[in-house]
Each structure stands twice: as C-alpha cells, then as structure tokens.
Amino acid sequence: MLYREAGDFKTSYASDNQTFPIRFDRYAYWVVMAVAFLVLPMVMNDYWANSIVVPFMIYVIAALGLNILIGYTGLLSLGTAAFMAVGAYATFKLSTAFPAMPIYLVFILSGLVTSAVGVLFGLPSLKIKGFYLAVATLAAQFFLIWLFTRYGWFFNYSSTGQISMPERSMFGVTITGATASSTAVYFTCLIFTVAMAWLARNLTRGQMGRTWMAIRDMDIAAEIIGVNPLIAKLSSFAVSSFFVGVAGALMFGVYLGAVEAGEAFGINKSFLVLFMVIIGGLGSILGSFLGAAFLVVLPVLLKILLVDNLGWPADLARHLEIMIIGALIIIVLIAEPHGMAALWRTIKEKLRLWPFPH
Amino acid sequence: MSDNLLFAMEAALNGVTVGIMYSLVALGFVLIFKASGIFNFAQGVMALFAALTLVGLQNGQIPFAPIINAAFGTSIHNFGWNLPSLVAIPLTVLVMIGMAWAIERVVLKHLVNQEPIILFMATIGLAFFLEGLGDIMWGAEVKRLDVGIPQGMSSWVDETTYNLFGYGFFIDTLSLYALGIAAVLVTGLVLFSQYTKQGRALRAVADDHQAALSVGISLRFIWVLTWSIAGIVALVAGIMWGSKSGVQFSLSLIALKALPVLILGGFTSIPGAIVGGLLIGVGEKLFDFFMQPVIGGATENWFAYMLALVFLLFRPQGLFGERIIERV
Q1: Facing A146 at nearest CB: one of B117, B301, B326
Q2: Does the ipTM surpass 0.90?
C-alpha cells in the first residue's frame, strides 16, 4: 500500500496546499534531492558530468521556460536558442564589465535581461497566435543571432568573434573558466535547476499559472472572465525568457566556456528544446525533466551503441538520430499528446489502485 | 542614369528571381493549408528529399547504401547506370506520391480533429524524419543536380540591358527558366482546380470539410491528392534550388523563408504566395543593397522575418488572405 492518499490527513491549509500531496511523492522527492546533492557528486566521473548530467540540467531549465510559454500559455516559440544566446551574451558583457559582481548574480541578471528582450519580441503575441507567432519568434531567432555576430560590442571586438568566459569564483571556489572543477560546475547547475524548478512549479500552481492556462484554453473566453491578456501573455513571455536566459547563461558560463552565437545557438537548438517539451509533456514540470533527460541521453546511447560498438560512421549515427527524433515526435503526438509525463500520470493512477484494480 | 540606380535595379531583378524560388516553396504550403488546414513545416524538407531522390536515381545510387554498408560491412554504392532526367523525374514523382500516401496513412489519419498547433508540431517531426531519411537513403554530401536546364549568365539580358542603359545586368539563365516554370506551374494548378472533377472536389474540401464529406467526397483521397501535388511542387522547387546551389541541407533552411512569404501573401491564396515571394525577394535584396553601408551585410538572414513581423501587426491575414474571424 505504497501510493495512497488514505491515512495522510491534512490538518492545515498549508499542508493541504503542499506541492506533493501524497506521502510517497514527498519521500521520493527527498530521496532524489539526497541523491542529487550527496550521492551523485561522489560517484560521478567527469565524463558523466560533462556529457550527460550538466547538459541535462541546463536543458531542463530551458525546457521549463519553453514549457511555460507553450505548454501553459499556448504560445508557440521557435526562438528559444536566440534567447539562450541573449542570456549567454549578457553574462559575458556583465562579467567582463563588472568583474567584482558575484557570478550567481550575473546569471540571474542575465536572465532578467533576456526577460526584457523576450517581452519585446512577445509584444506581437497580443495580436497574433499559433504559427503566425511562430514566424514572429523566428524573426527573433535570426535577427538576434545576426546582431550578436555582426556587432563587435557584443563580443568585445575579439578577433575570432567568439565570446569566452573569464574565470570567476565565489566564496573561494572557482565556478567558471577553464580551471573550474566539475564538482563546482555540477553544484552550480544543480542549485539553479532546483531553484528554477521550484519557481516554475509554484508559479504555475498560483494565480499567474492559472491565468496563463486560461489564456491557453481559450483566450477570448479568458478575457471575458476577467483575465487581462496583456499581462498574462507578456508575463508568460517574461518568465519563460528568464528561464531560457538563465539556461543560456549557464550553458555559456559553466558548460561550454566559449561560444560563437551562430554555431551554439542556431535554429536547431530551438527545435531541440521544443522537442524536449513535446516529448516530455506539454504543460508539465515533470515533463520538462523527462523530455530533457530523454533527448540528452538518446544521442549518447546511440553513439555508444552504433559508433563505439558497431563501428558505424559517426555522421550516419547522427542522421539516424535525427530520424528517430522526428519519428518519436510524431508517435508521441499521435499516441500520447501529453508526452511522457502523461505516461507517468497513468502509472500513478494504476499504482493508486494496486493491487486491487476493480 | 546614375550607376547607383542601375545597381539597385539589378539587385531588384535578382530579388525577383530569388523571390520566385521562395514562391515555389510557398506554393506547396498554400496547397496543403487550403485543403487540410495543416501548416506543413516539412515542405522545405520535402523539396530537399525530392531533389536528393532525383539525384540518387539519376546517378543510379543504391538507396540506403550507407546504412547497408555500415551494417553488413559491404561497400556497395551504385547500380552502375545513369538514368536520363526524363525517366528519373517521373520516378521521383512516383516516390513523392508514395510518400504522400504514406504520410496520410501513418500520420494524418491519426491526427484528424487535433488542434492546428499539434498538427504543426507533427509536421516539424515529419521534417526531421524526412531529413534523416534523405541523408540515410542517399548520403549527406552536397550533390550536383543537372537536369539539362542551362545555367550561367544570361547573355541575352546582358546585351539587351547594355544597349538600353549602357550597363549589362547579371542574371542567371536558370532564374529566367524558374520564372517560366513557376508561371506554368501556377497556370496548371489554377486550371486543374477550376476545370477538373478532382480540382472541384479539392476546392469543396478547402471550403468546408463537413459539407464536402456529406456530398460524398473522400476526404482521405483528397488529402493524398493534395500532398502528392505539394510533393510535385516540392520536386520542382528542389530541382530549381538544387540546380542553382547544389542539393544540400541548406535547402530546408530556405524553406523557412517561405513562412514570411506566406504571412505576406496570406495562407490561403495561390497568387498571394507568388506575390509574397516576389516582395520578400526584392525587399531583402534592396534592403541589403541600401542598408549595407549603414548596418552591415547579411541582412538577408532576418529581413524577411522582420518584415513579416511588422506586417503581422497591421494585417495578420496577409495581403490576399481571408479575414480571420474569431468566435468563442
């Protein structure tokens, strides 16, 4: 009798409103936290950290942001990678202009800068929606990347056109730059991921999330019951871009270290994050985690299986990967439009009744 | 006439020829959107796939050779024959029709009555699938496509303009052919949809799915039909682009440019697709020409999208589109 509401009595409003109403979920949550903070740093080697865990956590933040926009507010964006680039370049400019600023603050400020840019490009969403909006966000994608590669001010007139992260530390621990230990990188990403997921979860449960969902389900009807579409849509763009901007800042600051806008933040990255959201589950926090995990692990698995074990050429494996991802998108949309998160929901329903399903 | 004006005119003319290419891709979008309300993101990749198939057939490549070689350790590449274009093109058309049938069977049938945005995302998935499939079937390297359309500078345009203005315009012969082919294609499509039985059925479905069903039109057949036509239009676009700059992945990025074209022209209008394509083509060349000294080059990357963005704010239905009416 693991997974039951029964016997878990709520005696206060606070406990009635808690994030995980079922005791088993709460335990699971603490176990995951303990593993992430205590066990993983001990057992993980650099390869795992660099190729799976760190990118996974960064993509989780980006997917959370995009999920707020698409899954919760119903506004389709194809410009995610450009907003990540805004976060990355803001981090670069801020950390080189104010060397003394704490690096975590830099990441958060970069998110806020991205937020402002996101609101600017979100303005058309007040008049248009659906794929019309998708095209409008494509404008952001191509224009911003062009801007970042064209104007020297953004990359401090470096001859390569690249930006590279200076070394910064907090409390005596090097966090960015080439000498940062993988543990420091891991904990930075983990802290941000946990904080952002907590923020996303509580924003979407609260009044703000409800107005977003009202807009998503039918915007005219939402307007009639008193939701202000201006505030709802722009706040969704602002919050979403904040998440995406922080993801971009982390991707540049602690993960890649040096990036070139067109290469690291091209349109394909936008699609990648979009696919994470679709496969994971539209309108689900857990879905963002599952989708990001799936699409980070899949290429690594394919590479290990096809290239390392079977000796296939690497580009063939990559094409196969593209094909599999495309097919998966279609399959997910047909079979389970709410993604992997919905599978988990079904399992939970079954668990609740187990072992007497009738 | 001042040199600058002449250069601008040349840029505009080149814009027209690029714009026609955009229009060709946009045409396919419009056809599918009209008939099924699906915004087919995969149109560009379909053009790429069609061109890849055509080249592969022409050169007698063995489909899936790379993966067969990798899996079984063989090294097969070619059947050892070269098909003439006249045989290869009909074969490619057959492949595209088969693909349309498969898409209807596997994807669309299951997604009937879903929201447009879900269908849109499904076509993004389809685009990735086709891209991977094309690469695996025919190999990913850049290929030369030659179906016998003359290429290079058009000396006729050069001479005529030289006699007129004292400065010869540089225009690719291929682009002139593209103009002609686009005109033929549009005329053909209009004739087909106005004067044939299937064309009438097509328009009926575009007008109202339910009513069309109730008078006995098979929706599924019409969908296969429109996707086949879109596939053939994609093949034409693929041939033109492929002859111009080789068959390669960037073809599918060009297709993204068709999105702003549609926004300008309207999603439901065939003439709109042509006019929108021309506007975008000429607009981006002229913008680049005049703004290059001010803000730097390579503005072609984003000009079309920005134009569409501004356009959306004032006339969301496009120049020729039907008015968007929202009801609760």
Answers
A1: B301
A2: no
